[in-house]
């Protein structure tokens, strides 16, 4: 796989900034514990909620119940944004990943994603794989979504730099 086109936006960067490599962003996406999902309600109003996500095979994966607001929003409009970062002003790397999601339904991929949740978050986040979704022991269902980046932005702090990656 070739990497994305990487560009530093000098308008929003320190004079001595350099573009953040995509490899650093990918590592941060893999390590981040909490993400913020932004979707659009059917009436056009935004909706933002925190959730857990895993990075696997160059995509972010997350799950939600079929009756939750974010599931309804994504059924109407698959375009969304996942963000992660720090609340620190002077250190760290904040990331914004834009794209359209797709439902993951095949058992083999769901199993790999479920295994990745346990590897990243521990056994407390064990999911069973049911028919086209995650399930749990009390009968709950969680739809699984894949967000493969179209565009991503990195906001480096300290030496401030805004990097854009286009896929």
TrEMBL record:
Keywords attached to this entry = Oxidoreductase
Pfam families, A to Z: PNPOx_N
Domain Pyridoxamine 5'-phosphate oxidase N-terminal intervals: 24-134
Quote a single Gene Ontology cellular component term. Answer: cytosol
Which GO terms label this protein's molecular function in UniProt? coenzyme F420 binding; oxidoreductase activity, acting on the CH-CH group of donors
Per its record, how is this protein called by name? Pyridoxamine 5'-phosphate oxidase
Q: Which organism is it from?
A: Amycolatopsis marina
Q: What is the lineage of its organism?
A: Bacteria, Bacillati, Actinomycetota, Actinomycetes, Pseudonocardiales
């Amino acid at each position: 796989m070739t990497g994305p086109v990487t560009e530093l936006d000098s308008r929003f960067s320190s004079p001595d900034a350099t573009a953040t490599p995509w490899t650093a962003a990918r590592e941060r996406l893999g390590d981040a514990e909490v993400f913020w999902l932004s979707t659009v309600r059917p009436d056009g109003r935004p909706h933002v909620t925190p959730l857990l996500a895993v990075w696997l095979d160059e995509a972010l994966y997350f799950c939600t119940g079929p009756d939750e607001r974010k599931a309804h929003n994504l059924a109407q409009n698959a375009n969304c944004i996942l963000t992660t970062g720090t609340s620190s002003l002077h250190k760290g790397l904040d990331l914004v990943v834009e794209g359209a999601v797709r439902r993951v339904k095949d058992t083999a991929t769901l199993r790999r994603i479920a295994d990745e949740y346990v590897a990243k978050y521990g056994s407390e986040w064990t999911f069973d794989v049911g028919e086209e979704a995650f399930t749990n022991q009390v009968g709950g269902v969680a739809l699984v979504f894949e967000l493969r980046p179209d565009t991503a932005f990195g906001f480096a702090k300290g030496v401030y730099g805004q990097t854009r990656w286009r896929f």
